[in-house]
Structure formats: structure tokens, C-alpha cells
Amino acid sequence: MGEFFKLLKGGSKSSLTAAIVNTIIAVLKAVAFFLTGNVAMFAEMMHSFGDAANQFFVFIGSALSKKAPTPRFPNGFGRLVNLVCLGAVILVGILSYETIKEGWQHIQHPTASSGLAISLIVLGLGIILESVVLYKAGKEILHDVGMEGGFLAPFTKSIAYLDRAKPATKLVFMEDLVATSGGVLAFIAVLISHFTGFLQAEGIASILIGVMMFYVVGKVFLDNARGALGETDEQMLMHIAHLLSENTQVKDIQELEVIKEGEFLHVMLVAEIDPTLSFAEVDDIHDVLKELILNQQGVTDVTIAFDEDDGIRKWTHHRDQHTILKTHD
């Protein structure tokens, strides 16, 4: 049990923050829904409860994924966060379905809701809090990829680097992006319904929010399914190949794999070197290459083997300058 709580300290801070904030928002929206009967508020309540549960699961999964390898699991537990994310999206998928179903029923049988002030205050507060969480997640994404920017950079730049974010951070960013957008949509729907009498607006908003939730479900499911299977990090692979090509002792790259294990990267390299080198010289090359690769962001394990140079250059596709990443300090 002591080890479990120790691991929790290393869990994704963005997931924990998002889970706590979304729990508070979900309770506020639940109270507002029961007081007003607003269908758009119902959709937002379901969304927030789904996000909160999702992010609590992801926080625990990201923490447990940092458990050290054991004799039974020598490759570690990095993919555990992917498996947890796969399980978490099932819950969001169920809530998405319920949200769309409730919205459709309201379109068919529209009813007027009450408590305009309560609805707008709760939705406005939710939008503000979701935006704060979204900002923090965007900031964490930029930090993970070594990018810098101004005050608005977490909103304007982080989307471009979303594919390179950690699974937990990526999930939080996507869910809160949809949650913030859904809050704005629900806010507008409440105003339209109240001032124009077009009661179906709340049902339409509920369906749109549910569809956005389903998009997150699909995107997160596919991303984490690839991670659970062991996906190659193509960009880091090209980056490491480029760095190796700059080492004069490496004559060619016979084989190079960079496999994602949750938040971590495992590298396997077979390099061709001069066959006339002594064992001591080969050992020095091994140490230099290992240190170089381990210094790259996210790399936690390196396996290096050598073969004699056959004089035929095979590996040439590392020359794309767009793949060059910032070296981790």
C-alpha cells in the first residue's frame, strides 16, 4: 500500500487537477439541472461527470505506469496508462449515448425550463474553470515537447503538438477542449430557448455535445489502442537516426526501433561500425551512443548491438530536417 501511494505522487498532475475541477463542476451542474430541468444543462452535467471519472482513472493509470519493471514484467508497466484510457472511454461513450438520447427526446417533446439565472451562472462558471484546466493542459503539452511561447501559447500552439503529448495530458486537453466548447454551446442554447421560445435549441445543443463527446471517445480509443499494441514513434525514430548519422564511428544503421510504452520510449539499435576496432573502443562507442539516446526526451531504455560495416549504405531516410527535435536537457 505504501508503494501505491508513492506511485500516486508521480501521476499526471493535469489529470488529477482536471478530475477535481470536473467533479466540482459536475455537482454544480447536477444541482442546476434538478432546479431548472434544462436539457442542455443535463448534457453538460453528464459530460462533466464522465470527464471527472475518466480523468481520475487516467491519473491512477499514469501513476501505476511508472512502476519499476519486475522479473515477471521486465518491460515495465508503461502501457498500463493506455489500457486505463481504453477502459475510461467506454464510460464516456455510454454517457455520450445518454446525452444524445435525452437531446433527441427533448426535440420531439420540447418543454420549457426555468431558472435562467441559475443556468447561466453555473454554465459560465463551468466555462471559466474548464478554460483554466485547458490552459494548464496546453501549457504541460508545450513543456513536454520543449516549446516556448507567450501567454496565449497554451491555447494557440498546443494543438499542433498534441500528437507528441503524453497520453494522460492529451486526454485531458481533448476532453476539456470539448467541455469548454460544449459549455459555450449550452450557454447559447439556453439564451436562444429563453428569449426566442425555440425550445428545441436545448435538445440540439445536447445532441451536438454528445457528438463531440463521441469524437473524443473515438480519437482516444484509436490513439491508446495503438499505444497498447506498441506503436513506433516515427518522429523520435527519425530524430535519433539523425543524431546517430552525425557520429563518425557509426558507419550505418542496420536496425532502429523506437517503441512507445505509455509515456516512455524504448529504443533498440543495431549499428554498423569499423570491424578493425578493439573491444575497448567498441565499448566506448556503446557508452557514448547510450548516453546520447537516453538524453532524448521520454527515452528510458536503450538496447545497442553492433555489426561489422559491409560498406553498403542502407539507412538514408533520416535526412528530413522536419523531424529534428529539441534535445532534452
Any overview of this molecule?
This protein has 329 residues and is mostly helical. The chain has two domains: 2-229, Alpha-lytic protease prodomain-like, CATH 1.20.1510.10; 234-323, Cation efflux protein, cytoplasmic domain (Alpha-Beta Plaits). It has helices at 2-8, 13-36, 39-64, 80-108, 116-144, 153-156, 167-196, 200-229, 234-245, 279-294; strands at residues 252-261, 264-273, 299-308. A three-stranded mixed sheet has the order 1-2-3, covered by helices on one side. Helix 10 links the parallel strand 2 and strand 3. It is elongated. Mean pLDDT is 83; it is low at 319-329.
CATH architecture of the largest domain: Up-down Bundle
Percent of residues in β-strands? 5-15%
Radius of gyration: 24 Å
**CATH domain topology of the largest domain:** Alpha-lytic protease prodomain-like
Report the CATH C-level class of the largest domain.
Mainly Alpha
Mean pLDDT equals 83
Instruction: Tell me, briefly, the overall form.
Output: elongated
Please give the number of β-strands. 3
Give the proportion of residues in helices: 55-70%
List keywords for this structure.
Alpha-Beta Plaits; 2 domains; 10 helices; mainly alpha; Alpha-lytic protease prodomain-like; 3-stranded mixed β-sheet; 329 residues; 3 strands
